[in-house]
C-alpha cells in the first residue's frame, strides 16, 4: 500500500506564495526507499487534471511550460516529502493540487485558492 498525504493549500492573494508538501509512505520498494519519480498535478474547476511538475529520484525536474519560473518542485528523501513552492500566484492557479507517485498512486489533494 502507498499513502500520499498533501498539505499546505489555502487561500492566498494574487502575487502571494504557498508551499505544498506531500508525505509518502508505503511498503512498495520505490516508495519505501524514496526512489520513486514524484509528480504534482492540479485540477481546476471544470477542467481536466494537468501535470504541473515532475522530480525524479536523483532530483531531475521538469515543469509545465506555462509554470516555469514560478513553481519549484523539490524533495527531501530523509523526510519522505516532496514539495511544490508556488510563487507569484495568479487566480488561474486556483485548483486542487494532487501528489502522484509512480504514475499509479494519488493523494486526496489540497485546495489552493488564489483571490484577485
Descriptive tags:
about 120 residues, mainly beta, 7-stranded mixed beta sheet, 1 helix
Put the structure in a nutshell:
With 116 residues, the protein is mainly beta.
Fold and architecture overview:
The mean pLDDT is 95. It is built from one helix and eleven strands, in the order βββαββββββββ. The strands form two sheets. Strands 2, 4, 5, 6, 9, 10 and 11 form a seven-stranded mixed β-sheet that branches. Strands 1-3-8-7 form a four-stranded antiparallel β-sheet. It has 116 residues and is mainly beta.
Topology at a glance:
Blueprint: E1 2-7, E2 10-13, E3 18-26, H1 29-32, E4 38-43, E5 50-55, E6 61-63, E7 71-76, E8 81-86, E9 95-101, E10 105-106, E11 110-115
Parallel strand pairs: 2-11
Antiparallel strand pairs: 1-3, 3-8, 4-5, 4-9, 5-6, 7-8, 9-10, 9-11
Say what oligomer this is: single chain
Strand fraction equals over 45%
Separation, N- and C-terminal Cα atoms: 40 Å
Low-confidence segments, ≥5 residues, pLDDT <50? Answer: none
Question: What sequence of helices (H) and strands (E) makes up the elements?
Answer: EEEHEEEEEEEE
| DSSP, total strands | 11
Largest sheet entry: 7 strands, mixed
- Pairing-aware structural class of the strands and helices? mainly beta
Average pLDDT, rounded to a whole number, is 95
- What is the percent of helical residues? under 10%
The best one-word shape is: globular
* Count of alpha/pi helices: 1
- In angstroms, what is the radius of gyration? 13 Å
